[in-house]
Design brief:
The protein is built from seven helices and 13 strands. The chain is globular. The chain is an alpha/beta fold and 246 residues long. The longest helix is centred in the C-terminal third of the chain and has 14 residues.
């Protein structure tokens, strides 16, 4: 994909709306993941968690108007990542929804009945500075969200079922820039210490500057990332907000 220069004057804000780890005590936790990305005036939601009540309730607590969401990217066909979708669409919002062909025909048709759907195969530009990795193959196909910022690439993963390092490689194939941040589920709950340490080494080799594991990463793996990354480890939970200012 053609390399573009992100607008250096646009602030990027990422807010975790749904996660099983607490952060903001006002918000409800639940097994799943969702994050909102504001890129200048553009608003994108990545995944919708497991249920609409938690998703929309947390949005209300944070003062987020769901009707302002322009784009929805769904990482993969697991309930804890798409479960709040129909409830979100029932608010009357009409985002363009990006999902993989591995989503069931019934679900795809239900979404199509309410809004525009884009079936993602290869890497896809969603809007200025916002890209899908395209379908990353693995035990379960998945797509991640790539954000092009003046600080470098930001990758948001749902569960990283194909392997978080494979997801990073896919992100760098979209636009080859230094990786400023990887945030989301790394799917390492059952990984051994040696496996986690190997992945951390690969992060270092790739040059990932900041790591923000959450959701399905697992307590042990999160702890090992925290020790390895030190000041460049970002603790994530529901309500966490990261602002990448020019």
């Amino acid at each position: 994909m053609k390399k573009e220069t992100p607008d250096p004057n646009k602030k990027v804000t990422i807010t975790v709306i749904y996660d099983n780890y607490p952060y903001d005590p006002r918000l409800k936790t639940g097994w799943g993941f969702s994050a909102m990305v504001e890129y200048g005036e553009r608003i994108l939601l990545f995944d919708t968690g497991a249920d609409e009540q938690t998703l929309l309730g947390n949005m209300a607590q944070l003062g987020i108007n769901p009707l302002k969401i322009e784009y929805l990217v769904l990482s993969h066909f697991h309930q804890d990542h798409f479960g709040g979708t129909m409830g979100l669409l029932d608010t009357g919002v009409h985002p363009t929804v990006y999902l993989l062909s591995s989503f069931s025909p019934a679900f795809r048709n239900s979404v199509k009945a309410k809004t525009e759907v884009v079936i993602v195969h290869e890497s896809e530009k969603v809007a200025e500075g916002l890209y899908s990795t395209g379908q990353v193959e693995g035990v379960l196909p998945e797509e991640g969200l790539v954000i092009d910022t003046p600080k470098g690439l930001v990758l948001i993963t749902g569960c990283a079922h194909p392997g978080v390092v494979s997801m990073i490689s896919a992100a760098k194939a979209v636009i080859d820039k230094p990786v400023y941040l990887v945030l989301g589920g790394f799917h390492l709950g059952s990984a051994s210490d040696a496996q986690v340490d190997s992945i951390i080494d690969q992060f270092r080799h790739i040059g990932v500057i900041n790591a923000a594991p959450c959701h399905c990463t697992g307590e042990n793996a999160i702890g090992r990332f925290a020790r390895a990354y030190g000041d460049h480890f970002i603790q994530v939970g529901v309500g966490k907000k990261l602002e990448l200012v020019p």
